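Holo model, flavin-adenine dinucleotide. Inputs:
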Amino acid sequence: MSLDALIALAERVGRDSLAPNAARWDREGTFPTASYDALRQAGLLGLVVPAAHGGLGADFATYMQTVPHLSKYCATTALTFNMHCGCMMLTGFVFDSFDLPLEIKMQHQRRQKMHFERAARQGKVYALPFSEIGLDPSQALFSTTAKRVEGGWIVNGKKVFASLAGHADYYGVSCTEIADGKQPDFGDIVMLSIASNSPGVSVAGEWDTLGMRGTNSRTLLFKDVFVPENEILMPHGSAFQSRKVWPHLYMQLTCTYMGLAEAIFDFVVSYLRGEVPGMPPIKRRNIAQKQIDTAHLRIKLESARANWLRAIKEAGPNPSNEALQRMYVAQYTVMEGAAQIGFEAIRICGGSALQKSLPLERMFRDARCGSLMLPYTADISVANLGRACLYAEGETD
Ligand SMILES: Cc1cc2nc3c(=O)[nH]c(=O)nc-3n(C[C@H](O)[C@H](O)[C@H](O)COP(=O)(O)OP(=O)(O)OC[C@H]3O[C@@H](n4cnc5c(N)ncnc54)[C@H](O)[C@@H]3O)c2cc1C
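Output:
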């Protein structure tokens, strides 16, 4: 499907099915199940699945430009949808880009087919829980372990901030594979798909947060969970390489926040024009300060979008150091930019726009969450950018 057709589809689903419930998921802190029914019905669960497997065949740049058209209507749905698509992209084109022996690639094709068809033809939903308390996955091994047994693995461990917890059909869990007598290393990281109804899987804790309240990002516990052999999303030897080979994949959450920033800007314009439904038609656009404020907001939005568009078009395996730097710039500009646009929008619109009956305060809270998300939080993006500016690949002092 072309980018234009996908955008039209996302707009229709977003406007008709996501927007009506967005405030409810936020207020109640409940998972957007009805949004997923709509995504499934529209075939969007197969957005990044190749057409040969029943999907819509979007590549990375197409995916990134489609999701903002869902996010502007319901950011909670879009962020959880990022996790689902992330699993499909990792097991799909990210894996395909690795330089691996043909035998390993052929073996993985059978697994790709299984995951793709579950998503695109059976409407199953995947989550992407990799976070563990205090763990930077580029520095340390996951403490969630997968021990080889006959016919598969036994998984034990805990994942925090697991969006879609209790609502996904499969969890794409990054584990460290352990074996008696071997000290595990990064080459032993494996990403398994664990059926959410497997014995030993449970959900714990609460998710009562400032923003993104419907993502249900609770804690997942795995206690002696048996995972069959074929349930691999990324085999060991490849899982740890994905961030090195395809670093742009991990900027994928920005598409949700780009859509959110655009929606906040659109709200400000409607508000100042006196066109927000349910509000008295008071025009504030004739105040000179509001015109200047709107101009500055537009400059922020367009700067973020320009950096972002360039970065997603450069995305691909083994990017140059220059492209990597632009990716960190885009990541930072969108994630912190969305939060700043939300912050400024509230000042520009004023007190009457704070009401819970209007979407602005929800979008402001949701926008604040983006730059906190690993692996490229705002702080980590800046740290990585500075290093990439000053050191060539492999260079040390
Ligand atoms: C809405 C939402 C949904 C989420 N969904 C998922 C999900 O589906 N799957 C998943 O795996 N995770 C998910 N996460 C978790 C997220 O990716 C992070 O793992 C989590 O927010 C980290 O928590 P923390 O900031 O307390 O951690 P910490 O890592 O302790 O970070 C604390 C602070 O230190 C900074 N920091 C950390 N390390 C460095 C460093 N090396 N250099 C400089 N600064 C650093 C961080 O930027 C942050 O400001 C989600 C988070 C949110 C907010």
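Residues 68 and 258 are 6 Å apart (CA to CA). The chain has three domains: 3-124, 145-241, 246-390.
Archived with the compound record.
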